């Protein structure tokens, strides 16, 4: 397997493609610029099989329906944010997009607990990592030593918690109890900015 990071939209939200040897891929957080993302997928002759959302803020879901409808694939999100896909007040687009409301169709699958998730040949450990938002989740791929953390943990920073449903203490607890429990060599693939390493954040992150 291999992964690639594709920053999308005005906030340069990181979408990730996780690809296996058969060119099947999982799409994480298709936030915006659906046509650009689609062109990248097609140019590499990839075959998307699912969309996984770390959370449902507008900058992570803007291209969900375009990618879902183009490739006829299911969308997964935590049940606590099931309503956010279609509600601009909840997903934040009403507040931040100056009238450009983001509305997507409901997710096909709701994640309601920490568990193993298998989709085709892909396997993930799903961790609930709320704090940035109530339904924030992280996807750990043991074989690659990577975790898709959404907006929970960044290089030398953490997710903002001043949005509706945010909770700073809950976020710090999520990071320390869930993400920092992973092996120190685990690479953190964040929702914005460059990747980092768990050991680096334990030693250097000023918020932790």
TrEMBL record:
Q: Which domain of life is it from?
A: Bacteria
Tagged with keyword Aminoacyl-tRNA synthetase? no
Q: Which Gene3D superfamilies match?
A: Ribonuclease Z/Hydroxyacylglutathione hydrolase-like
Pinpoint the Metallo-beta-lactamase domain residues.
12-192
Record's keyword annotation contains Hydrolase = yes
Q: Name one Pfam family in it.
A: Lactamase_B
A Gene Ontology molecular function term for this protein is: metal ion binding
Write the record's keywords in alphabetical order, separated by commas: Hydrolase, Metal-binding, Zinc
InterPro entries in the cross-refs:
MBL_Glyoxalase_II (IPR051453), Metallo-B-lactamas (IPR001279), RibonucZ/Hydroxyglut_hydro (IPR036866)
Swiss-Prot/TrEMBL cofactor(s) = Zn(2+)
**Which SUPFAM superfamilies does this one have?**
Metallo-hydrolase/oxidoreductase
Against CDD domains, the record matches this protein to: metallo-hydrolase-like_MBL-fold
**What name has this protein been given in UniProt?**
Metallo-beta-lactamase domain-containing protein
Species: Heyndrickxia sporothermodurans
């Amino acid at each position: 397997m291999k992964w690639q990071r594709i920053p999308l939209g005005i906030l340069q939200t990181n979408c990730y493609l996780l690809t296996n040897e058969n060119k099947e891929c999982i799409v994480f957080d298709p936030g915006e610029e659906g046509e650009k993302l689609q062109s990248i997928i097609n140019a590499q002759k990839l075959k998307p099989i699912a969309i996984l959302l770390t959370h449902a803020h507008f900058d992570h879901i803007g291209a969900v329906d375009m990618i879902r409808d183009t490739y006829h694939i299911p969308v997964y999100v935590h049940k606590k944010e099931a309503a956010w896909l279609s509600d601009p007040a909840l997903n934040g687009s009403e507040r931040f997009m100056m009238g450009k409301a983001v509305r997507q169709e409901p997710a096909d699958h709701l994640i309601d607990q920490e568990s193993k998730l298998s989709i085709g040949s892909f396997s993930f450990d799903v961790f609930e990592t709320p704090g940035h938002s109530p339904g924030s989740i992280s996807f750990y791929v043991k074989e690659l030593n990577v975790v898709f953390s959404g907006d929970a943990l960044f290089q030398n920073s953490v997710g903002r918690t001043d949005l509706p449903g945010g909770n700073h203490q809950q976020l710090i607890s999520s990071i320390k109890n869930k993400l920092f429990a992973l092996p120190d060599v685990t690479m953190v693939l964040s929702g914005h900015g460059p990747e980092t390493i768990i050991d680096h954040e334990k030693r250097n992150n000023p918020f932790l």
